[in-house]
Amino acid sequence: MGWLESMQQAIDFIDEHLEEPITLEQIAARANVSMFHFQRTFSILTDMSVGEYIRGRRLTLAAHELVSTNKKIIDISFKYGYESPEAFSKAFRRQHGIAPSEARKNLGSLKSYNRLVI
Asked: What residues contact 78, with CB distance under 8 A and at least 6 apart?
């Protein structure tokens, strides 16, 4: 298997586990490379860090749930790994430019981080 295929396997692993805690060590193991090499290669290929990608994907999925379900904001925040609704709201506002409650009322546009395909 080539290195691009290995990187794609690692990205697929990330997307399959966005609702649970995942470590860089687990992700790099999927690509059969060191954590350092994975981070560097991922950054070169995507122009973002692994953490930025995970955060962006989680907040994209959370935004979708906010506008398409009646789940409580606190439940969505915990589902995507935030330790408090305040931390979730801060990250959500940083990515989308609006508060989760505003997103629920469709009061603004939401940014989307789509699944990466290499």
From this structure: none
